Amino acid sequence: MKNPKITTIIPTYKRPKLLQKALTSIINQTYSNFEVHVCDNNSQDETETVVKDFIKKDPRIHYHCHEENIGMMANYKYGFSLVKSPFFSLLSDDDILFPWFYEETIKGLIEFPEVAISASSTIIMSPHGEIRGAPLELWKKEGKIASPNCLFELIGKYPVPTCIIFRKDMINKIYIDESNSLVWDCDFLIQIAARYPIFISKKPCGILLTHEQSFSTSQNIDTWKNSIFKLKNRIKLFNQISLEHKKIVCKLLENQLNNELKNASFASIKEYLFAKDIKKLKKSIANYRKKYNSNYKIFIISIIIFFYPFFRWNTNLLLWIRKLKKTFPLSKFSPYKKYKIWLTKY
Fold it and tell me: Poorest-confidence range of 29-43, 118-132, 185-199, 309-323?
């Protein structure tokens, strides 16, 4: 099959400016045989205008707006129902694809007809360009990976749907758990990896933007715990996984949850200490302004006051960072910094 058609589904709600970037990243693809369906969950803002401006330039883009907000998962399922092509992808309205995404990622599906998905690397990035992760960087190898090895490998290092192309005829058999919306994509990928081989490429093909308004980032740790527990219980009922493999998957999910808790604790402590130091700094500056007229003296003293708490718990911090690096090798993500230019390119 040469140059097969790919459908991309973009569920959206009240993010017209970010959606504009997402759509621009699609129409700049080097691979041309695709169509896009934007599924608007009744935004009632300038979203419709943004999409229709794109439609004037590119007829491969289609717009669908619900009469009322049907919810995130129902909107995803509606998007699935629009797919008529042999392959499809899912793009969040706040994510960005690099121009080579389709061309690079479709290769695995064309070369291996038995593969259900082809996943390229997604860089998880803040709006300011801070690299938060690249899950596929942590995989042991690339290329075609058979089940159940791909199943064990993906727990906690899930390929991000932003840079996945799915084979429609195989995915039609996969159940979407609407009741567990926070980790529905993890559930979805686990089911796929339990049944079929998958293809992995570590080449970066897009950015997942993580920010305060994103669905996963806005959830608290208790919600994450409950979602992973629900996922674990569901896996026990999967017919496609042997009892032995279920035990391995459940253990891996427990490890994933423990890592989430560690990372959340580290972030909370850092946030608390930073807020505490800022308050100290402001108070100290106010006090020293009464004593000194020199801006230079205020500047030097302020720096000393600000960094003092960090020196105070310096040893513990260094030990924590070393431990964190062993668990989650952040140094591997430094080569991805050059891709942050794509945040401002569109």
Answer: 309-323
| DSSP codes of every residue in 127-158 | TT--EEE-GGGGSS--EEE-TTHHHHHHTTSP
Helix/strand/coil for 28:
coil
Q: Is residue 240 part of a domain?
A: no
Of residues 322 and 107, the one with the higher pLDDT is 107
Q: Is the Cβ–Cβ distance between 119 and 164 less than 8 Å?
A: yes
Q: How many structural domains compose the chain? A: 2
Cα 129 from Cα 196, distance rounded (Å): 35
Q: Are residues 174 and 259 in the same domain?
A: no
Does 57 share its domain with 121?
Answer: yes
Task: Compute the C-alpha angle 158/195/156, nearest 5°.
Answer: 15
Cβ neighbours for 143, distance < 8 A, ≥ 6 positions apart: 108, 199, 200
Q: Taking all residues of the chain, what is their mean pLDDT, rounded to a whole number?
A: 83
Q: How many beta carbons lie within 10 A of that of residue 344, not counting itself?
A: 8
For strand 198-209 and strand 96-97, is the pairing parallel, antiparallel, or unpaired?
Answer: antiparallel
Round to whole Å and give the CA distance between 37 and 26. 11
Q: Is 22 exposed, middle or buried (0-12, 13-18, 19+ CB in 10 A)?
A: buried
pLDDT for the residue 221: 72
Considering the entire predicted model, what is its pTM?
A: 0.79
Q: Is residue 338 part of a domain?
A: yes
